[in-house]
Amino acid sequence: MMVIFSSLIFLNFIIAEVCNSYAEVRSNIDAFIYKERASLIAEAEDIMSKKSKADKNCFPTFIISR
């Protein structure tokens, strides 16, 4: 009886830790996604030629934030 009771307590602890880890990852996923998108955009811009970067229609000197 004691072994069953101890294993239930241990399994409950494991489930609580997994839920806590999942909640932590879930709260940080949006920031991680935006960071990866910015990294991919920077990499794509590095690959472009200097001539295409000089085009003011594609690369304006200001950023509009809404």
Folded structure, characterized:
The chain has 66 residues and is mainly alpha-helical. The chain has a domain at 2-43. It is built from 2 helices and no strands. The protein has helices at 2-47, 50-53. The radius of gyration is 24 Å and the shape is rod-shaped.
Provide the low-confidence segments as ranges: none
Percentage beta strand: under 5%
The radius of gyration over CA amounts to 24 Å
Q: Judging from the principal axes of the Cα atoms, what is the shape?
A: rod-shaped
Using DSSP, what is the number of strands? 0
| Biggest sheet architecture | none
Provide a count of the helices: 2
Per-chain topology:
Blueprint: H1 2-47, H2 50-53
Summarize, please.
By secondary structure, this protein is mainly α. It has helices at about 1-45, 50-55. The chain has a domain at about 1-45.
